Amino acid sequence: MLSVLRKIVQEVSTAPDLESVLDLIVRRIQRAMRTQVCSIFLFDPQLQRYVLRATQGLNQEAVGQVSLSMGEGIVGQVGQRAEPINLEDASRHPAFHYLQATGEERYHAFLGVPIIHHRSVLGVLVVQQVEHRRFDESEEAFMVTVSAQLAGIIAHAEATGSVNGEQHPQARVQPQRDRHFNGVAAAPGVAIGTVIVATLAAELETVSDKRAVDMEHELASFRAALASVKDDIRTVSQGLAQRLQSDEQALFDVYLRMLDDPALSDAIEQAIVDGNWAQGALREVILTQVRQFNAMEDAYLRERATDIRDLGRRILSYLQESAGPVAIDCADDSILIADELSPTMLGLVPEDKLVGLVSVSGSGNSHAAIMARAVGIPTVMGVVDLPFTRLEGRQIIVDGYSGRVYVNPSDKLLEAFREVIREERAVAAGLESLRDLPAETTDGYRMPLWVNTGLVADVTRSLERGAEGIGLYRTEIPFMIRDFFPSEQEQLNSYRSQLEAFAPRPVTMRTLDIGGDKALPYFPIEEDNPFLGWRGIRVTLDHPEIFLVQVRAMLRASEGLNNLRIMLPMVTSVHEVEEALRQIDQALTELQEEGYAVQRPLVGVMVEVPAAVYQVRRFARLVDFVSVGSNDLTQYILAVDRNNPRVAGLYAAYHPAVLRALQYIARETRKEGKPVSICGEMAADPGGSLLLMAMGYEVLSMNANNLPRVKSAIRGVSLARAQSLLTRVLRMDDAEEIHQYLRQSLKQLGLGQLTRPRLPHQTGDSA
Ligand code: PEP
Ligand code: MG
Question: pTM of the full predicted structure?
Answer without folding.
Answer: 0.82
